[in-house]
Amino acid sequence: MFFRHLFSVVRKTAVCVAMEASNATASVECKTHNSPPSVEEVLKMKWEREQKDLKEKMLLMDVDDWSKLKITTDVVNKFPQKLCLRYVGGVDISFIKGDDVNACAAFVVLEFPELKIIYKDISMVQLTAPYIPGFLAFREVNSLKEKIEKLKNIQPSILPQVVLVDGNGILHPRGFGLACHLGVLTDLPTIGVAKNLFCVKKLQDAGDWLPLIGISGKQHGVIYRSCKESTNPIYISPGHKISMETAIWVVEKCINYRIPEPTRQADILSREYIRSLCNKGESDKKPSHKKKKRERGQKRNEFDNPMPSETCEDESYLGPGLDLWDS
DNA sequence: GCGACAG
DNA sequence: ATCTTGTCGC
């Protein structure tokens, strides 16, 4: 059972998590009408409304047959393809060191359950919006959405039945992370898979706390140990048109290494592209791909930073009743 | 006032 | 996100 892999968090990333205020106010603090609002504050208020509107279209349940049946490897050929999970997508964006605008976006489709790449779309994109914590989607979602829409047009037969997104789903200050945003805009099931815990609510006052093994109410996501080689967990939350249970099931089936294959491949390919940019002429925007792959360089990233030995006493795994933040 | 903050 | 080698362990 994958739930056995869930473990209580004693890592530093989790320490900063705080309890959500019961009287949830807008997370964007409006200054008292003394100083004029900064550009960032204006953006936050505008984007917060947008998130709220889009969130109404979000669906947190399994809507497709494959997600209800969860037919696995051995019987996959005995059923009509419509009932099976066959195509899993992954998206990721990589950046150049000193460039805030130009980045490389990758969208891949893997065949399931073999997890082999059958489609890839990697290209440079322009990211104009700034990155503001809690509003990642406004920086990245358009580039990703375009690639998905492109596939809808040129080869809808291999359109992924679910897309894994690097970033959070409902595990988000306002319950609407990048995975949700992308899901609603593309009308595809999405799953958020983050490599770091995003604090849903900052510690407001001394004494504020958050039970990781929850108390009541809504479950925002799970902390998931994806493989035995790494104690460093990932953070899974449903994005759109998928249930918590199915989201975990999909991620589990996509694990070769710590990061599920769809997003891992998207990450590898976009980095590779950026790298070939640097090796090539700096003025040329269209570099020719070099087939040179650094087998060892990749491998390093696969097993990220092991947990410090002092924090390794986490034999306390969470049970199936895991709750996270209340909403 | 300062640090933290998915990617 | 990005800057970065070797190294320890199964």
UniProtKB/TrEMBL annotation:
It comes from the Eukaryota. The keyword Cytoplasm applies. GO terms for biological process: DNA repair. Keywords: Cytoplasm, Endonuclease, Hydrolase, Nuclease. It is found in: Cytoplasm. Residues 280-327 are annotated as: Disordered. Residues 287-297 have a biased composition (Basic residues). Its main location: cytoplasm. Pfam families: Endonuclease_5. GO terms for cellular component: cytoplasm; nucleolus. One of its GO terms (molecular function) is RNA endonuclease activity producing 5'-phosphomonoesters, hydrolytic mechanism. This is Endonuclease V. The lineage of its organism: Eukaryota, Metazoa, Spiralia, Lophotrochozoa, Annelida.
